[in-house]
Amino acid sequence: MVFMLSIAVEVFSSCINLTNIFMVNGVVGMDKTELATLYFFHTLKGIGNRTLWKIKEEWGSFQKCFEADSISLHQSSLSVPIIDTIIDGRRGANPAELLEKLQDEDIKICCVEDDDYPQLLGSTFDPPYIFYYHGNIEILKDFCIAIVGSRTASTYGKGQARRFGNELANQGMVVVSGMARGIDTEAHRGALDAGGRTVAVLGSGIDVVYPPENLKLYTSIGESGLVLSEFPPHTHPEAGNFPVRNRTISGLCRGVLVVEAQKKSGALITADFALEQGRDVFAIPGPINSKNSVGTNFLIKQGACLVSGIDDILAEYGWNNKNNLPQVSQGELLFGLEAEELLVVEALGHEEKHFDILMGSTGLSTGVLSTVLLKMELKGIIQALPGNYYVKI
Fold first, then answer.
1. In degrees rounded to 5, what are phi and psi of residue 274?
2. By CB distance 3.0 to 4.6 Å, which of 11, 137, 161, 270 could disulfide with 246?
């Protein structure tokens, strides 16, 4: 894997433990009453992702917190403003009706306790407890790669974004971006032109199209791919939302391709998040006299993989088009494995093993082991199972 920092190891380790809280306890979904209460809390002003996690960890369920008396609430670790918001907000509130109205608008909800919550996103530190979506959530189980860049993209940048979106989608990869003007828009369009799949992660509510001229694009993505947002419906696209959105983009993906980026830009923020999450960062070089190339050229100087064609990305993952993959035996796959991969094969044996068990058996660090497991999964040697378990195929 390319361009990783040591900080990614610590963050990755933290997030694995956080995700396992739910998996170990066997929580695989949320009943309708609990989901309605979760949605109600998320609609209250000032209650964001961290507060949702705190409520769940302290109360065990959102319903219990909703039904708690004011004395119990004030004895909790929630801040006074949040407690006042809950007490005021629940007066006359009917969470079931709120959820029903949302469903009437064909807006779906996914929370961290659901089976279809994206595994990669769930492995990040402090993942979104809840998000809203239109379209096919199942595509997030496939190989996702992000394409991001400047809103004020050059003709060159737009062309490259559309080209890579098209070619990566044509290879069977899922192209993820933020549906912003410029690079994002062209990446989505390139994937759609190829008849491929693309995911738009919004910095606004799921029912707020931004920029408004992308309404047709928004509709097309929702019909053949996926549109999602971790912000409650009706949320306007405020500046503070976009770093949060960028973190989710990188969290959903194996790698991030930066096409164009200025010195201080959202694309570089996405690249930073990718590093923290242990993802790969790729960058397309540009003219040294272009302000839109300052960010990408800087990333390359720092160790990002320089990309001049799709083969540079495919080679990093040993990727061939799924329709053209040769049929090989397990013995052929195991031949020529790297030393770390052989350690994993030996440790796995014929039983499924948890990530922590593999780490102890192989002596590999969290970051190295996660990288080796990803490579072996892509080679078809092992399979990742829910709850950070792995098994030899």
1. -60, -40
2. 270
Which residue in 70, 72, 77, 29 sits closest to 53, CA to CA? 77
Gap between the Cα atoms of 251 and 271, Å rounded: 11
Tokens 């799709």 correspond to 310
Element (H, E) at 272: helix 266-276
Please write the tens of the pLDDT for every residue from 295-320. 999 999 999 999 999 999 999 888 86
Determine the average pLDDT of the residues in 234-245: 94
16/19 Cα distance (integer angstroms): 5
Assign 26 a pLDDT band (cuts: 50, 70, 90).
very low
Residue 341 structure tokens: 């991969």
Distance CA 13, CA 9 (A): 6
3-state SS assignment for residue 175: strand
**Considering the entire predicted model, what is its pTM?**
0.74
Q: Domains (ranges, CATH) in the chain?
A: 30-107 (1.10.150), 135-317 (3.40.50.450), 326-392 (1.10.10.10)
For residue 218, what are its two tokens? Answer: 């928004």
Cβ atoms of 157 and 183 within 8 Å: the answer is yes
To 5 degrees, how large is the angle CA 202–CA 203–CA 207? 60
At position 37, the amino acid (one-letter code) is T
- Residue 357 φ then ψ, to 5°: -65, -45
Q: Which residues contact 151 (CB under 8 A, 6 or more apart)?
A: 180, 181, 182, 183, 184
> By the 8 A CB rule, do 220 and 144 touch?
no
Over the stretch 97-115, which tens digit does the pLDDT of each residue have? Answer: 999 999 999 999 999 999 9
> Which of 303, 302, 283 lies closest to 293, judged by CA?
283
Ramachandran quadrant class, 349 (left: phi over 0; alpha: psi -120 to 50; beta: rest) = left
